[in-house]
């Protein structure tokens, strides 16, 4: 993964979008197969993917795991209020915690929302105690996820 080069954003055309759509479905698709399906050369696929990586459009390739199969069966959203002067400190500390898989700076009554994964209610309680001890946290509100209605990592592009 090359990363974003100092603000460079490549122009993304229809061919780039087609490549991205295929890779979103299966990031392990060989470039030769992409080239055949798109009726272009493998070198073109490689060049396009490299351009998209260099520009930060493609941020990386990863494995998607089922948290339940790893024993992380309790998901929760933690809404966080902070002392405004300590918000960035709180966010920095939360971002370091393994239980936090997503963290958002939001508008409204709360300053942040953290999505967390833990094994059970006991771990959730310990995690909430840990958050409550962070310098700058004034209150939290926790929403335990009962069912996942929709969860995806696939972004609609160019539709």
TrEMBL record:
GO MF, one annotated term: sequence-specific DNA binding
User: Record keywords: Transcription regulation included?
Assistant: yes
A GO BP annotation: response to amino acid
Q: Could you tell me which residue ranges the HTH asnC-type domain spans?
A: 12-73
Any transmembrane segments, and where? none
Q: Which UniProt keywords apply?
A: DNA-binding, Transcription, Transcription regulation
> What would be one Pfam family of this protein?
AsnC_trans_reg
Instruction: Specify the superkingdom.
Output: Archaea
**GO cellular component: a single term:** cytosol
Report the protein name in the record.
Answer: HTH asnC-type domain-containing protein
Report the source organism: Candidatus Marsarchaeota G2 archaeon ECH_B_3
């Amino acid at each position: 993964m090359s990363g974003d080069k100092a603000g460079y954003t490549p122009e993304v055309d229809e061919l780039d979008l087609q490549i991205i759509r295929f890779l979103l479905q299966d990031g392990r698709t060989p470039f030769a197969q992409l080239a055949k399906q798109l009726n272009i050369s493998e070198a073109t696929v490689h060049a396009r993917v490299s351009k998209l990586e260099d520009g930060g459009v493609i941020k990386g390739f990863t494995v998607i795991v089922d948290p339940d199969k790893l024993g992380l069966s309790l998901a929760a959203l933690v809404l966080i209020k902070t002392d405004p002067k300590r918000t960035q400190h709180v966010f920095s500390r939360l971002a370091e915690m393994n239980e936090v898989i997503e963290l958002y700076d939001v508008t409204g009554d709360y300053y942040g929302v953290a999505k967390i994964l833990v094994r059970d209610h006991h771990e959730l309680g310990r995690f909430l105690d840990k958050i409550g001890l962070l310098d700058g946290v004034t209150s939290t509100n926790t929403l335990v996820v009962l069912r996942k209605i929709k969860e995806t990592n696939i972004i609609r592009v160019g539709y």
